[in-house]
Every structure is written in C-alpha cells, then in structure tokens.
Amino acid sequence: MKRPLSIRVRFLLVSLVAVPSALALAALFMTSMFSASLERRLEEELKGHINTIAGSIRLGIDGKIEHPFSLMDRRFAQAYGGLYWQIGDAATSAQFRSESLWDTSLSSPDDLPDDGAVHRYEADGPEGTRLIVLERQIMVSAPAGLKPVQISVASDTRALDEASRGFALDILPYLAGLAAFLIGASLVQVIFGLKPLADLTKGLDRIRERRSGRLEGALPAEFVPVEAAVNRLLESQAQSLARARARAGDLAHGLKTPLTVLSNDALTLRERGEGEIADEIEHLVQMMRGHVEHELARSRIVANADMRQTDADIEKIVGQVVKTLQRTPKGEALQWTVEIGEPSHVPLDAHDLRELIGNLTENAVKWASGEVCIGWKQGRLVVADDGPGVDPDKIRSMTERGVRLDSQTPGTGFGLSIVKEICEVYGLTLSIENRQGSGLMVSVGFGAAE
C-alpha cells in the first residue's frame, strides 16, 4: 500500500499553490484599484477643463459661439496629443475644437440628456485610441434667449494603461519576495506546529526502548485524548503481561518440587538395579526442568518499563558473569579475553542483560577448546569461542526452544532461545556465525548504543 504524503509536504504544497494564487489576486485587485484611482483623478482633471471652458464661452450679437481662449495644457495644442476639447450647439456638434483633434472630432451620443450634469462615456479616438469623454450641456445667454451649448473634453487611455502596467511591474518583485516569505513562514509554522508530533514520537520511542511506562510530556490540549488512550492501552497490556508472567512463574515454581521428587525416585530405582527406567525418568526430568528454567527465565524478563529503574552497566555485568564462570571446572581451564570499553551503559534492564550475557557466555564455555573472547565492536556485543563451530545449515535452528545440536553435551537447549526472546523484547539484532578457522561467534547489536 502506497504511503500518503506527509503532513509537512501537504502543507507545503498547499502553500505553494495558495500563496502565489492569493498574491496574484491581490496584485490584480491592487492594479485595478490603482487604475480606478488614476481614472478618478483624470475625470476630475477633465471636469476642471470643462468648467474652465464653460466660464470662457461667449455668444456674439448674431447668437453664434465665439472661440474661447486657449487652455494652458500643451497637449490641447499638439496634434493627437491625447487631450482634446470640443464645443458645439444644436446646429453644429463640433463648432470649435482643440488643435489636438486635428482632422477629427469627438462623437457624442444621441441620447445625451440636457440636465446640465457632467456625463461620462467612452468613444473611439484618433489613431485607433480609446477615449474617456466627459460632456456637459450648459445654457448660455443670447439676444434671443438661452442657448444650449455642449462642451466635451476627452483624454485617451494610453497613459492610464501604461501607468497600470508600470505599477504592476513595480509591485511584482515585492509580491515575489512576500510570496517567498509567506511560504517560508508557512513551513516554519508547520514545523513548529508539528513539533508536538515529534514529542509524541519521542515519548513512544521511550516506551518502546523501555525507558518509560507511560506517554508523558507537555503535550498540547489537542493531544490529551491521544495521550490518555495510549496510556490506558499501555496499562492494560502491562497488567495482562504481568498476570501472564505471574502465572507462568507460579506454574514453573509449582513444578520444581514434583520434579525433585521424580529425580529422587529415579535415584532410588537406580539403586534397586532398575537402571533403564531410572535413565528414562532422569531424561524426562531433565527435559521438564529445562522447560521450567526457561519459563522462569522468561517470567523474569522485564514486562514493562515501570519495573526497569536504570540502564545496565555492560562492563560491570560482563565482569560479574566472567568471574562466576571462571570458578567452574571448565571455565577455570580456559583463557579469557574481555575488551568492552565504550559504552559503559546500554538501554536494558540489568537482570535482562545479565540473563543475555550469561546464556551467551555459558554456551561459549560449553563448546570452547581453550579460549573465550568477549568484546564490544561497533555497537555490538561479541562472544566468541574456539570450539568446533556449527554446521551452517543448523545455525538458524540454534535459537529454537529446546534444540540441542549435541545430545552428549549437558544442557537444556533453551539458552540461545532465551537470548533471542530478550533481543526481540528490546529490538536488538542477534547474529550467529562460524569464526574463521574454528569456533562460533555470537553478536548482539544494540541499536540505541550504536
């Protein structure tokens, strides 16, 4: 099943899409507002020109409009200068016009109302330009009475368009910088916002490494239900394990006494000359005692982190185990090489580490011809002997319960099985291989110490 995108990647993708889109819309809005503002200013300017022209209009004795004085803006005098005016009446719509119109005139709509207000419309201008036209009709006194006069002032939109484009280009770098800042801020926000998940992961890792029995820490309020649910699950599992191991321990202890009685019965039978039955009983007792010891060892493995006080001092425990085995008849005759050095502590319960090292070392002593080596190499505890080694096809079965590769050698066949179970509980890696020359080498990798 394909794993979905991480939360960080999702937030980043959303930011990469949303931030530029939002800023693009903002740029369009700001450019539109800027254009509207320029257009309002232009209309106010055109209204001023209309008022100036209206104040200078005079009618002659014959009732015709006299040419007004020239306006100060040079664009009115420059051909197609972009600013135009035109005066007309009912008879002639373009009786007078600015020099900038040259050979054209402003077209007026047919439905222009005669209310005296300023009306705005757009029209085609010289050389294919688009014009904004303001037009007003005023009443001027004439000998025959009031006469309507239309005043039109126009400006092409090229200046507005160029100003809008220039404004958009000017704000583009700032918007790009703002986009980069917002995306970066979003990423920082995601990292900071998801930090409680990292704390939650660390808490779960501590539980997995058996450094804690509960999910604890200063988690946000949103994680309180998760914390409570995980702790309830851990408590339930710990109680179930404790009950199961207690029952296994009680059962194993309960069987030790009957096994001792059977062993004594076998001794009695042997003294009576019934050696064959005695051998069979002793064999069965030995097998059952191996199972009992195995279950007792399993019941002593730390069931939860609350039972674990501190990390184990590996150099100290190796020294204790070696000192004990050197006092045995077989261990006394062997040469011992112990090189631990760093690290001084590993994340295991002291009893579990002693059980692990004890079983590995006892197995090495059992098969060694003259030397046992114990060392620490690149995060792995290595126990090696110079014995006959093991058939490569049988190495995998060595960690199975009750498997004995040599029935002539004393043992229960549960030592490496217990080692394997401890490794599985703590997430350690177990490796078994033959040494170059002769002998067996067993190593355990401590991930947290590597």
Summarize the structure.
By secondary structure, the chain is α+β, with helices and mostly antiparallel strands. It has helices spanning 7-56, 158-193, 195-208, 224-271, 275-300, 314-325, 329-332, 350-367, 415-426, and strands spanning 58-59, 65-66, 83-89, 96-97, 118-124, 130-142, 145-156, 312-313, 335-339, 345-346, 371-377, 380-385, 429-434, 440-445.
Task: Describe the protein in words.
- The protein is 49% helix and 18% strand.
- It is an alpha+beta fold and 450 residues long.
- It folds into three domains: 56-157, Beta-Lactamase (2-Layer Sandwich); 224-305, Helix Hairpins (Orthogonal Bundle); 310-449, 2-Layer Sandwich (Heat Shock Protein 90), CATH 3.30.565.10.
- The chain is rod-shaped.
- The relative contact order is 0.07.
- The model is unreliable at 404-412 (pLDDT under 50).
The biggest beta sheet reads:
5 strands, antiparallel
> Measured on Cα atoms, how large is the radius of gyration?
50 Å
Regarding quaternary structure, what we see is: single chain
**Category from helices, strands and their pairing:** alpha+beta
CATH architecture of the largest domain: 2-Layer Sandwich
CA(first)-CA(last) distance: 31 Å
Unreliable residue stretches: 404-412
Q: Residue share in helices?
A: 40-55%
Number of alpha- plus pi-helical segments = 9
Strand content: 15-25%
User: Looking at this structure, what is the CATH superfamily of the largest domain?
Assistant: Histidine kinase-like ATPase, C-terminal domain
- Strand arrangement, major sheet: 4-3-7-6-5
The count of DSSP E runs of length 2 or more, i.e. the number of strands, is: 14
Count of discrete domains: 3
The coarse silhouette is rod-shaped
| Mean of residue pLDDT values | 79
Order of helices and strands: HEEEEEEEHHHHEHHEEHEEHEE
- Give the class-level CATH name of the largest domain: Alpha Beta
Q: Can you tell me the CATH topology of the largest domain?
A: Heat Shock Protein 90
